[in-house]
Automatic annotation (TrEMBL):
InterPro entries recorded: Rossmann-like_a/b/a_fold, Universal_stress_UspA, UspA
The protein's name in its UniProt record: Universal stress protein uspa-like protein
Family annotation (PANTHER family): STRESS RESPONSE PROTEIN NHAX (PTHR46268), UNIVERSAL STRESS PROTEIN UP12 (PTHR46268:SF6)
Domain UspA: residue ranges: 3-127
Domain of life: Archaea
Family recorded in the similarity comment: Belongs to the universal stress protein A family.
């Protein structure tokens, strides 16, 4: 069984690209298991991760592909949550969505993707960059 942790933010396009990469991994659907991770930075309405459109989109795609999955939700720094979840489940791979940012934007605001790459003790795949 190949266990993948997928970091899912609010962007549906990121979620779709990440799940497409899981589907395209070698092996049968039955050989893959996914943990979708969504970290709420701000959640005044008390929503659950399964109510977030991007998480629902990813879930529906995984179901359609016949891939076993679970949804983990948390609050706090998304990069820390993704890395700690990957460690907790002993994931074989972490997949996160990329985005275009200027060097100054990365320096000023940080990057979840960059933090995951630097903090993970396992392979990290970054999906195509969306504008």
């Amino acid at each position: 069984m190949y266990h993948v942790v997928v970091g899912v933010d609010e962007e549906e396009e990121h979620a779709r690209r990440c799940v497409e990469e899981v589907v395209n991994l070698p092996g049968e659907s039955s050989e893959k298991r996914v943990t979708l991770v969504h970290s709420f930075v701000d959640n005044p309405s008390g929503a659950s991760a399964t109510q977030v459109h991007s998480v629902r989109e990813a879930s529906e795609m995984l179901e359609a592909a016949g891939i076993e999955y679970e949804v983990e939700e948390s609050s706090g720094d998304p990069a820390d949550v993704i890395v700690s979840t990957a460690d907790d489940v002993d994931a074989d791979l972490v997949i996160v969505g990329g985005r275009k940012r200027s060097p100054a934007g990365k320096a000023l605001f940080g990057s979840v993707t960059q933090s995951v790459i630097l903090g993970a003790a396992r392979p990290v795949m970054v999906t195509g960059v969306a504008n």
